[in-house]
Structure formats: C-alpha cells, structure tokens
Amino acid sequence: MNASVLMIALPLLAAFLLPLTGPLARWVGPFAAALNIALGISLWQTVAQEGPSVVVMGGFAAPLGIVFRVDTLAVLFATALAALVLILWPRTSADPRRESALLLILLAAGCGLAFSGDLFNLFVFYELIAVASYGLVAASRERLAAAAGLRYLVLSALGSAFALLGIGLVYALAGTLNLADLSRHADALNSPLGLAAFALMLLGFGVKAELFPVNAWVAEVYSTATARTTALLAGGVSKLALLIVLHLVLLVYAQPAALSLLLTLGLLSIVSGQFAGYRAADLPRMLAYSSIAQLGMIAAAFSVSGEAGVLAGLALALHHLIVKPALFLVGDGWPKCVDSLAGLGRAEPWRAALFVLLALSLLGIPPLPGFWAKLLLLKALLGMGEPAWNLAAAVVLLGTAIEGAYLLRVLQTLFRGTTNAKPATFGGALPAGVLGVALLLVMLAATPVGGALQRAAQQAADVPAYVADTLGGSPQ
Amino acid sequence: MLTSRPRWPALLFILGLALLLTALLRDLHFGNAPMQVGQAINGVAAHETGAANVVASVLLAYRGLDTLGELAILFAAATGAGLVLGIAFRNGNGEAQAKTNTEPPAGFILRKGADLMFPFLLILGAYVILHGHLTPGGGFQGGAILAAAFFVPQLARPSSPFNERTAHWVEALAGASFVLIGIAGLAGAGWFLAPLLGTGSVGELLSAGSIPLLQLAIGLKVGSELAGLMIALHGPKET
Amino acid sequence: MIMAWVALACVVTMLVAGVLVLTQRKLIGAIAAASVVSVALSVLLVVLRAPDVALAEAAVGAGLSSVLLALAVRRVGAVDSKEDT
C-alpha cells in the first residue's frame, strides 16, 4: 500500500535531482513514469486481493494527519495518468530538462490527486498540477501560446482563490478537512453557506475540469500548446480535477441541491461545448470544444447519486482519456482549418482511418467503447427517476446529435476530393497508435473491463466503508 | 478601459461576489468556528512531535505532505519561469559563467549597505530556519531571507560573482533530502514522513526529531532557488 | 483596545494601497503599492497573533515577490513606457 506514496515521492525526487543528472537527464523522466506504472500495477493486484485500504502520512491518524485512500478507482487513475505521461513523453523539446521536471511534477501531483483523502491536500496537489501545466503550455515556442498561457494562468489563479475560499468556508463550518470526517459532519454543510462553499469549490476545481462558466481558456490553450501537452491536459488533468468533485459529491455533498448544481453546470457544458464545436472552423478548437462537452457529460454522470453514476462517469472518463489525446495527436500537423483537410483521407489512409475510428468511438457508435460509456450514462440519468435528470438524458442525446453533425462533417471532408499537398509528418504516430490499439483492446475485452469498472465504482460509492476505513482506528 | 467589451459579465461577477460576502457576514459566526482539528492538534502537538512551535509541527509533521507539495509548487513555478524566459540552464563547467553582468555598480549607499547587511542577513536567515521548531519562522521564511542576502550584493555590484553551479547543487540536494527523509520514515517507521530521531525535550535547539532537518532542507532549497531566479532575472538578457 | 485601532489602521492602509495598485500608471508604482499592502497585512497578522504567517507575508509578500515583479518589469522593459489605458 505504501507504493501509493512512492508514486508521488519518486517522481518528485527525480524532478528535484534532474539538474544534476547530466547526460542521463532525458532518460530519468520516462524511467520514473514507467516505474510509476509498475507501482500502479502492483497496487492494483494488492487492492484486488485485499480490498481498499488507507495509508497514513507520518503516522498521524485520520482527522489530524493526511491520509491516502487506496482503492480501485484511485489506482486506476494514477496508473492511467502515468501511462499517458509515458506515452506522451516529448521526443524533442527546446528545454528538455525543465520540461521533464515539469512533467514529472505533473505526474506526482496527478497521483496525489487520485489518492489523497484530505480536502486541503487535494488543493495543494491541484495547485501543483496547475503550476506545472502553466509552464508546459507556455513551453510551446509559439508567440500565441505565451498569451494563451498567461490568460490560462490568470483564470486558473482566480479559480484557485475561489476553491481556497470554499475550503476555508468548509473548515469554518465543519471544523475538519478530512473527507471521511467531513462525511460524518455533512449536516454542518447542509445549509446555504455550505452550498455556497460547494459552489466556490466547483468554480475553482471547474477551471481544470473545463466546467461551464470557467472554461474560456480551453479552446485557446488547446489550439496553441503543443499537441502532447494538450493531450495530457485534456486527457489526464481534467479527469483528475473532476475526481475531486466526485469525492465531494459522494462523501460530503450528497444533498439534492448540490447534485442539481453539478448537473446544471454539466449540462451547460454539454450544450455550450457542442454548439461551439459545431461552429468551430478549425480542428484543434473543435476537439477542444468537444472535450468541454465530454467533461460536461462526466460531470452530469457524477451528479447521479450512487454506484450507477460513478460507473458511468468512470467509463466516460477513461474512454475520453484514451480517445481525446489520440485525436489531438492525429490532428497535429494536419492543416488546422477543417476545410483544408479535403483529400487527406486518400493521401494518408492509415492516419485517416485512425481518426475515423477515434471519432466514431467519441460519438458513441456501437460496438466501440464510447457507445457503452454513453449507454451507461443514459441509464444512470434515467435511473434517478427525477424530471431534471430525465431532461438531462434528452440533453445528452441532443448533444450527441450535434457532435455527430460536426464530427461527420470532418470525416466527410477527409474523404472528399484529392489533395496535392505532400503528406505531413505524423510526429505523434507512435502514441496515437498505442492509444488506438488500447481502444480496440478495450472493445474486445469489454466484459472484463466492465467488470473491473463495476468493482471500482462499487468501492468508491461505498461511503460507510470509506469512513470506517479512514477513521476506524482514530481516537475520536 | 482596455477594450470596448461588454461590461455586464464584470458587473454580474461583482454582484455575485457581493451576494456571497453578504451571505458570509450574515450567516457565518465569526470567532466561534468549530475548530475540532485545531483544538486536537493544540492539545497533542508538543507531546507528539516535540516542537515548541505548534505551527511548525503542523507544517512538517501533521501536514508534512502538504509542505512537500508547496515546495514542489515553488520549484515548478521557478522552473516554469525559467522555461518561459529562456534562461539558459548552466549546470556544468565554469566557462559558461564567464558571461557576467556588465552593468556599472550601484551608488555608495547601496554598496556599503549591502556589504554591511550581508553577514547579518545570513545570520538572520540561518536563525529563522534553525529555530523554526521553537519560534515563529522556518524554512520558507528563512529561505526567503537567505535569498535576499545573496541577491543584495548582486544589486549593489552587478558584476560580482555568483556560483550558479553550487546553487543548483544545493537546491537539488536540499529538495531531494526532504523526499529522502520522508522515504527514510517510510523505511524506518512504516509511514512516509514519519518523525525520526525521537522528540527530545520540548524547547531545546536539538529537539523535535527530524523537523529541524526538514526546515533546513526547505530553507536551503527555497533560498538557492529564489536567489538563482532573481539573479537570472537581474542578469543580462539571453537568447 | 489599542490593538483594535492598530488593526483598523492596517486594514485602511491595505484598502488605500490596494486602490493605489489599480490606479497607478507606472507598473513600478503599482508594485510598490502592492508591497505596502503586504507590509500592512503582515502587521495585521502580528496583531491577530499569527507571527508565523506574518513573517512569511513580510519576507515573501512584501520582499521577494515585489523584487521579482520589479525585475520582471525591468526585463520586459515596461518601466518607462506609457501604460495602456
């Protein structure tokens, strides 16, 4: 179980020591990421055998010290992030040492976000991942990227201030910040002020999670940063931010008002994202808006209380984690304007075929995994049996229709006419290919994957067990 | 002012903020928040960690992982700034350091003042770091003072030498030692960042287990990092 | 009682300096005003009996961050140019 701490400590150690490693520097990062994957797999086996457990930092038991909750969901996300970082490790970079250090920090912080069971500790790791991502966004040597990065930084700093204010309010109302302890004191937060704290945290963590009112940075950053950074932010970081929200609604804010708020923001993200995607003229922006909509769907799924919602959100999140980075990588190097894509389907058949596969899965065409994820979402939403959630199901279907319209437009353009442009270099061929193969493997192994996700959702939704595991041995 | 964008989003934002503040003032009972965790820590901190300064015991024992995170945030921020500004990474050989600042030295008052203050700033920084577990202060504050101590001479005489290589080594090793003390706790006591070396008697300089060591690691890392960043920013523009 | 007056003075100084940050034409002036906010805040924190935080605010907020901002402004060369209004 201590491997969970090492998944944070070792990348940080590597990042700190990176300036001293000399010629080895370029191998340190991938090695640390691979080590994290190995640690994640060993944790996965331990959790499968012994069930979820709690790791105590420094030997100080739960409400006083920081604890890590190691369950299937957390291990899944930590390992997936490590794999994504390894796959997307940049081959060339203007400043490899600094970029490697930032990527390692992003990896460590992401694992912390997955494991931590303490609200303030989550905030620290959220801030860490944010600061690391500013540098990575600005590392793209495009002038526009610096401007986009600055605006991203300002919005994100504002969001962090909101989140911190919300966390401060939670502490003022409940007197503790441990999630399990907060779960016991959830009544103290069941007031207008408690809900205001939730709204503040939603706004704050929503910046990275690309939720509706605070996602203005998404399109700009994703269309200017390097494809690998974009893939990492859209694929990995956004999910981890939503994971904080999931912990909050599961453990602390299981009240209807908070769930409706999350659902509303999710639906607004879906609608605004899909319409903006429909109107977008260039491919990276279109993918960025579609990413907003997809994350809105995950948020809507998390607003369904209980196991069904967690399962649907988990499936959507993992699907998006595989598909969207691959789409960004395939699109990298192609002309940005959608209309200029004409004929590329013949010029680069394999690359175009990969794009088609990914886009169809994103849309949710059976038997691709995206279909099952969306089906789970619709089942979960309708399972709530409340008018607002039934309406949400309709909104998801409408959003999918719009998504279909613009994605099919791209596919149609790809295979229309001919181009006499030389095939562009496909720099991201290897990572995109790996992700494409992963998608196909998930499709073939749908039953075992579904079972594993079911187990993860079951563990995550079992709040009494979480509280008992965390606070069981504590004096209070 | 900046552009002719519509003002209503800003107005809406201010309205929301005002609403929130009003709600806070009306509903929040200032002064009697349920400080459960705070009270509990106040009761046991000195006994459990041996630190006379409760804040230090919270920062480095109860919430040591948060502090490691903060340290990494500062590192990430400095790294990101270096990346954006394109400050060359000078790690190795002395020849890279030949490029010194060619600005003329500052006036008499600044030069003499810098000479006079340097030793005192060093001592103050070291004091604040090493007494972090006894009195207010600690690694972050003392590190900032140390950084200032090394930056002031540069301000007075831009051509005076600063050994960036040593600064890099100190920074890297100090950061690594924080993590390694944590891992040592994992190996020794079974918990990451577990207090080592016993608590000692509260109030002594050599007490509170590994807390002073962690303070020292933070102080050296923060000091060398910030000094390096400021001197790089102050130095001649590259690229 | 006297502490309450000191605290009030600190808060008023912070507000005034905060407004000055927004209204200063020159960036370097705004940075100086921002550091005044930090100094007043650190005094306020001493009054509130949080010496640790006060020390951090004085060293980092008033000292280092102002120096870093000033250096950054110098580096991008915006000290003397007219600010966009």
Instruction: Tell me the structural class of chain B.
Output: mainly alpha
User: What class, by secondary structure content of chain A?
Assistant: mainly alpha
The quaternary organization reads as heterotrimer
Total individual domains of chain A: 3
Topology pattern of chain B, helix = H, strand = E? HHHHHHHH
Q: Give the termini distance of chain A in whole angstroms.
A: 24 Å
Percent of residues in helices of chain B: 55-70%
Describe the structure.
The complex is a heterotrimer of chains A (476), B (239) and C (85). Chain A has 476 residues and is mainly α. Chain A folds into three domains: 1-117; 118-128 and 135-254, no CATH class; 258-460, no CATH class. In chain A, 75% of the residues lie in helices and 2% in strands. Chain A contains 20 helices and two strands. Chain A has helices spanning 3-17, 25-50, 72-87, 96-115, 119-138, 143-174, 179-184, 192-206, 217-224, 227-252, 256-279, 283-302, 307-331, 344-347, 349-363, 369-383, 387-414, 429-444, 446-461, 463-471, and strands at residues 53-56, 67-70. A two-stranded antiparallel ribbon of chain A has the order 1-2. The radius of gyration of chain A is 21 Å and the shape is globular. The model of chain A has no long low-confidence stretch (mean pLDDT 87). Chain B is mostly helical and 239 residues long. Chain B is built from eight helices and no strands. Chain B has helices at 8-27, 36-49, 54-62, 64-85, 108-130, 139-156, 164-188, 211-234. In chain B, helix 2 (36-49) packs across helix 3, helix 5 (108-130) packs antiparallel against helix 6 (139-156) and helix 7 packs antiparallel against helix 8. The longest helix of chain B is centred in the last third of the chain and has 25 residues, at 164-188. The radius of gyration of chain B is 23 Å and the shape is globular. The two termini of chain B are 34 Å apart. Chain C is mostly helical and 85 residues long. Chain C has one domain (2-76). Helices cover 81% and strands 0% of the residues of chain C. The radius of gyration of chain C is 14 Å and the shape is flat. In chain C, 24% of the residues are buried.
